[in-house]
């Protein structure tokens, strides 16, 4: 990055000639995200509304391009880490979000759970401890007053407010359990994302579980971690008039979870009438379709 060249280009952003502006914008949008501080500095020192608006648009576009690039890399990565996926979704709205800070917040929650654990506990007893720490001590819950709000899908906001939707609370719950050595995975159940505690011996190297018998029990984090059996899931599916599918009982992969998170976001922005953000999320979702068409061999 040629800093002097960038500074010179930025000074041209107030040019009244639209062709000059379009040309400068085109060049700046090809630059890496590292130029954002220079753009922010220029915005702060200007009192020209048109210049500031143009700078804001360019910053947003660069940050959006960076999120696209990082999500593409995540989709190509062999492990597709769940926390990192949730972090990248969060970067759409909060470009300065820190993965280190998110890990520190999760580490505090994990420590509180770990202090209550011992090696003689059964799987159910361990889950009761997780439930006690998350729902009784830290008061994680469904955001009932703003159920469709986009912020329910941003892990930064959920860790800050301790309120979210079934998916975001389940993601935090699963991450903590996995870090504590408990095989708890997401289940892509429509209308209420839940979790499954599985038999470790049934987990393959790529963490795929295809046998329903491997699921020891289900967990509903949005209902204070209530433990469920298969019959409760069957009843829910029947109650919601859904066609039964095997995938409603089996753990899903992290790509499915992050895609559902983005779909929640798209619906949230649509419900608020924020068409621009809805379209941007739609373009991010298109990356997942591209990944499906060109899977890693």
TrEMBL record:
Residues 102-263 form the Protein SirB1 N-terminal domain. It holds the Pfam family Transglut_core2. InterPro entries: SirB1_N (IPR032698). PANTHER family: PROTEIN SIRB1 N-TERMINAL DOMAIN-CONTAINING PROTEIN (PTHR31350:SF29), SI:DKEY-261L7.2 (PTHR31350). Belongs to the UPF0162 family. This is Transglutaminase family protein. It comes from Carboxylicivirga marina. The lineage of its organism: Bacteria, Pseudomonadati, Bacteroidota, Bacteroidia, Marinilabiliales.
């Amino acid at each position: 990055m040629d800093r002097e060249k960038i500074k010179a280009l930025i000074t041209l952003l107030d040019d009244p000639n639209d062709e000059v502006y379009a040309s400068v914008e085109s060049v700046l949008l090809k630059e890496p995200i590292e130029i954002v501080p220079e753009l922010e500095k220029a915005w702060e020192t200007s009192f020209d509304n048109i210049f500031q608006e143009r700078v804001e648009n360019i910053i947003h576009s660069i940050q959006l391009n960076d999120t696209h690039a990082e999500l593409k890399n995540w989709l190509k990565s062999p492990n597709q880490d769940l926390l990192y996926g949730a972090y990248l979704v969060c970067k759409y709205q909060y470009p300065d979000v820190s993965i280190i800070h998110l890990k520190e917040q999760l580490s505090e929650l994990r420590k509180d759970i770990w202090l209550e654990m011992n090696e003689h506990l059964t799987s159910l007893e361990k889950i009761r401890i997780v439930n006690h720490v998350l729902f009784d001590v830290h008061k994680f819950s469904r955001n009932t007053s703003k159920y469709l709000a986009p912020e329910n899908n941003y892990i930064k906001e959920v860790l800050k407010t301790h309120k979210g939707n079934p998916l975001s609370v389940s993601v935090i719950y699963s991450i903590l359990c996995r870090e504590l050595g408990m095989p708890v995975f997401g289940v892509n159940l429509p209308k209420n994302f839940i979790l499954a505690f599985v038999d470790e011996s049934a987990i393959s190297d790529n963490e795929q579980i295809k046998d329903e018998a491997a699921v020891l029990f289900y967990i509903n984090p949005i209902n204070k971690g209530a433990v469920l059996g298969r019959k409760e899931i069957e009843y829910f599916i029947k109650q919601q008039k859904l066609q039964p599918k095997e995938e409603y009982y089996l753990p899903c992969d992290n790509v499915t979870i992050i895609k559902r998170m983005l779909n929640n976001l798209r619906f949230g922005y649509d419900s608020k009438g924020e068409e621009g953000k809805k379209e941007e999320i739609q373009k991010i979702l298109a990356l997942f379709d591209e990944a499906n068409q060109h899977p890693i061999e």
